[in-house]
Specification:
It is a single chain. The chain is mainly alpha-helical and 321 residues long. It contains twelve helices and four strands. The protein has a two-stranded antiparallel ribbon with strand order 1-2. The chain has a two-stranded antiparallel ribbon with strand order 3-4. Helix 4 packs across helix 9. It is elongated, with a radius of gyration of 20 Å.
Length: 321
């Protein structure tokens, strides 16, 4: 099935499902444990770094990581294959650049870029539901439209039974035991890690990784720096590509020079330069991107939970969570 358009009708479908779904009692402990794991500082730091490198919100990275790899940082975000080799399952042979074993962050950036999520800007609740369904594939919607995909709705009252037990093999009696992405999102909203409309909360900038970045370095941290320089209007480094070359060093020096005496102008990104780059007080930041400000791209009529800038009703009550 070709990818359907995210029409206002489809937006409303996702919004209505999310508003009326409730977590089944048997999954409440699982949902709490998943949210606790994602929120651990050492885990959230890694999700924030990938978010800074890709503009995909940290909670979206965390949800995909849970769904595809069970939250295991030794596995590819693409499909859960081990990082000790390129991916074997679809999409096979990823990442193309570099040699295994791959850093988790590098692989995560590759997965999100491959799926073009770095270009996606609507991270409202319907926008995220659309992304998750597309990430897993449109087979449920095409061949079994009476079953809401468990990849999104597993563990909730809007999913009962029916799943693919293998590639192309369908069972109407089988029940997915996986907690769906929208159930995880609801729990993250309940604990305050995500805003009630699905937007990213305002939190600390991605933490410095402990390694001073300079010419010859590559990876997610370099990409995050390049994207941040671009956002701050320092474009002497060219387009972000994740490789720290002479152009990036020149852009870093330009940024350091603009900071006056606060930073040494050396073209290296140590803790002070990193902090200055990602300083929340001066950041335009991810929260200002379309779809992360709480307004999304859909008109208010398509967002019954959010009207005129005020929360109308909170989907997924605390009792349902």
């Amino acid at each position: 099935m070709s990818q359907p358009e995210l029409t206002e009708t489809l937006r409303q479908e996702y919004a209505d499902l999310f508003a009326r779904a409730a977590l089944r009692p048997a999954y409440r402990a699982t949902a709490a444990a998943v949210a606790d794991r994602l929120a651990r500082p050492e885990h959230w730091r890694r999700y924030r770094l990938v978010a800074a490198a890709t503009a995909v919100p940290a909670h979206v990275v965390a949800i995909l990581h849970t769904l595809e790899a069970g939250g295991n940082f030794a596995c590819h975000l693409h499909n859960g294959d081990p990082l000790t080799a390129r991916t074997v399952r679809v999409p096979a042979g990823r990442p193309v650049v570099g040699e295994p074993p791959f850093p988790w962050e590098t692989s995560a950036v590759d997965a999100l870029t491959l799926r073009r999520l770095t270009r996606w800007t609507d991270w409202s609740i319907p926008g995220l539901a659309y992304v998750l369904e597309g990430y897993n594939g449109w087979g449920y919607r095409r061949f079994h439209p009476d079953v809401h995909s468990p990849y999104l709705w597993g563990g909730t009252t809007v999913y009962r039974a029916g799943k693919y037990v293998a590639d192309g093999a369908w069972s109407s009696e089988a029940v997915s035991r996986q907690l769906g992405g929208m159930a995880i999102l609801a729990r993250l909203i309940a604990v305050g890690l995500v805003l009630p409309d699905g937007g990213a909360t305002t939190d600390d900038p991605p933490a410095w990784g402990g390694h001073t970045l300079g010419v010859g370095d590559a990876g997610a941290a370099v990409l995050a720096v390049q994207r941040r320089l671009w956002e701050r209007g320092v474009q002497a480094g060219g387009r972000p590509d994740g490789r720290f070359g002479p152009q990036t060093a020149r852009a870093v020096r330009a940024f350091q020079a603009e900071a006056g005496t606060a930073l040494r102008v050396d073209g290296l990104v140590g803790p002070r330069t990193w902090q200055a780059l990602f300083d929340a007080a001066t950041a335009t930041g991810l929260a200002s991107l379309p779809g992360l400000s709480g307004t999304g791209t859909a008109p208010a009529a398509a967002r019954p939970w959010y009207r005129a800038g005020f929360l109308r009703r909170l989907p997924w009550s605390e009792r349902a969570i």
